[in-house]
Amino acid sequence: MFSEEHYLFIKKQRRNQFYVRFTQIFILILFFILWQCLANFHMINTFIFSSPRQMFSTIIELHKTGDLYQHIWVTVYETLISFGLGTFLGLLIATILWWFPFISKVADPYLTILNSLPKVALGPIIIIWCGAGIRSIIFMALLISLIITIINIYQSFINTDKNKIKLMKSLKANKWQVYIKLIFPNSIKDFISTLKINISMSLIGVIMGEFLVSKEGIGYLIMYGSQVFNLNLVIAGIFILCLVAAIMYYCILYIEKKLIK
Amino acid sequence: MTSSLQLSFQSMNNILEIKSLRKSYHTKDSEILAVEDFSYSLSDGEFIAIVGPSGCGKSTILSILCGLEKKSGGEITIKDNYKIGYMLQQDSLFPFRTILDNCLLGLEINHELTKEKKKKVIDLLSTYGLKDFINSYPDELSGGMRQRVALIRTLATNPDILLLDEPFSALDYQSRLAVSDDVYRIIKQEKKSAIIVTHDLAEAISLASKVIVLSERPSKIKKVFDIKLSNRSTPIENRKAKEFSEYYDAIWKEIDFHV
Ligand SMILES: Nc1ncnc2c1ncn2[C@@H]1O[C@H](COP(=O)(O)OP(=O)(O)OP(=O)(O)O)[C@@H](O)[C@H]1O
Ligand SMILES: [Mg+2]
Questions:
Q1: Rounded distance, CA B235 to CA B212, Å?
Q2: Cβ atoms within 10 A of the Cβ of A72, count?
């Protein structure tokens, strides 16, 4: 079908891609090997810095007792709930702001302040209000993801091409039709990139919440590890968290690919 | 058919009457009188052009006619059951809709989407050279094609009077000529009346049977030119008529162009 040159080009691209992947994995392995060597030759104190071997054996232990999956599940579950709530409420509130310009003008300074406020400062109050349990954690995560979701989606709504709105009006569309046939579908791309931010934000919020309260979850694992000075547990927790974060992010990427062709 | 309404028309043939239309815009620190006095009676099947210096209020007049802006004064009467369609300068095709779905937008909005009407739109697209693109997305089309789609989107709701606001200004010269030929043909074949706003005097003369020259803002009608070409045919052919350049010069002199 294609010319020889084209095949060569594709081949070169593939090879290039392979080198990038290879180097990425190589760096990761090198990092672990170096770390392990430093530990083996007592160049670092494994009591403080742990070591890959100790980290993995901690994970295997957690796996054997079955605790590992319970902790992962709790964190993922909390993240998904606050992600879902944040996305839904964010979309709803952004829609209300778009629909009623008066409300959006009134809300503007409040949103700006709330957005720049470090939400963790509200931690103590949240615990008092919502109790030391999952509700506090979800509330915390929601606070962190919601404001930025509202702002991003609303921005995308009001940036819709004025001429397209004019066109809708010239076709005698009512406000709901303008919203459902133009504003919303036009913002789908931005909406999905908001999802990507939102899932990370929710995870950050959940871990922060688990630091503050909770008896389960990856955040709890890390916190508990540091309290009993079991650095193996802390490092294992961080490693698992990296994996969970990556998997959730790639799930959203997958959904994005499915939705936007 | 209410006879009293019919009687208010000067001639039975008129489908749109505009009497001393006035429009001012209000902004925070000023009031702009955009249109001071505009009157015209459009008869069935007529194709007229409005020209005038930039910012004199041409778009404003069309926006009021189609109900996008409120008038400040004057009277507009449209013959019973006659509908107005507006084609804006930008094609404003929705990138997330296929060409066909873009064209069906007006019908969807007015809950008029029936099988026959959909078929009619498909026929229109096929007739005017867009058959292979019915299920494509707008970014796959050239500027001229997009403009044709925009016209068919306007025609889909079956308006009787078309308002065209500089429909070709985004196109390069070659496609401009070709598309204006196409649009003219479509409008004549579908037996529509049309008011076109343009900056391009040659375009105005080649398309319209009357050219209205507006003064600077606040705009009033300065002069109406009756374009009588010896052998009127398609816009491109009309440009070759011997009277063409006379009209061009005459209209040019009427317009206060500040460049
Ligand atoms: N929404 C608005 N608010 C305030 N002033 C406006 C508004 N729309 C138009 N104007 C003013 O009214 C005048 C007429 O505008 P209009 O767009 O009708 O001119 P135009 O003849 O179509 O110009 P152009 O040839 O550049 O398209 C302009 O001076 C413009 O600044
Ligand atoms: Mg204009």
A1: 18
A2: 18
CA distances to A32, A237, A246, B3 from A25, rounded to whole Å, are 11, 21, 15, 85
Domains of chain A by residue range:
66-260
What is the CA(A130)–ligand 1 centre distance, in A?
56
Q: Which candidate in A165, A171, A183 is best for mutational testing of the B interface (most B CBs within 10 A)?
A: A171
Report the C-alpha gap between B43 and A103 in whole angstroms: 47
pLDDT of residue B5: 47
Residues A73, A81: Cα–Cα separation, whole Å? 12
Contact A169 B88 (CB under 8 A): no
Amino acid at A233: L
- pLDDT for B179 equals 83
Q: Which ligand is nearest to the CA of B60?
A: 1
Cβ pair B51, B125 in contact under 8 A: no
Relative to beta strand B47-51, strand B14-27 is unpaired
Q: Where are the alpha helices (DSSP H) in chain A?
A: 4-40, 46-49, 52-65, 67-99, 101-116, 123-130, 134-158, 162-170, 175-178, 184-186, 188-212, 218-227, 231-259
Query: What's CA A179's distance to the chain center, in Å?
Result: 28
* Residues within a 6 A CB radius of ligand 1: B 25, 27, 32, 34, 54-60, 217
Report the greatest alpha carbon distance in chain A.
Answer: 78
pLDDT score at B190: 84
d(CA A56, CA A13): 36
* Mean pLDDT for back-to-back runs of 10 residues, chain A (261 residues): 86 94 95 94 90 93 92 95 95 97 96 91 90 90 93 96 94 96 94 92 93 90 93 94 94 87 65
Residue A184: which region, alpha, beta or left (left: phi > 0; alpha: psi -120 to 50)? alpha
Run of H or E residues at B49: strand B47-51
Calpha distance A148→B63 (Å, rounded): 37
Q: Where would I find the beta strands (DSSP E) of B52-149?
A: 73-78, 84-87
What does the alpha-carbon distance between residue A14 and residue A4 come to, in Å, rounded to a whole number? Answer: 15
What is A66-260's CATH superfamily? MetI-like (1.10.3720.10)
Map residue B94 onto helix, strand or coil: coil
Cα–Cα distance, B189 to B207 (Å, whole number): 14
**Nearest ligand, CA B51:** 1
CA distance B209 to B247: 12
Other C-beta atoms closer than 10 Å to the C-beta of A125 total 10
CA distances from B157 to A170, A175, B69, B112, B148 (A): 11, 19, 21, 8, 15
Write out the two tokens for A109.
């300074």
Contact B209, B74 (CB under 8 A): no
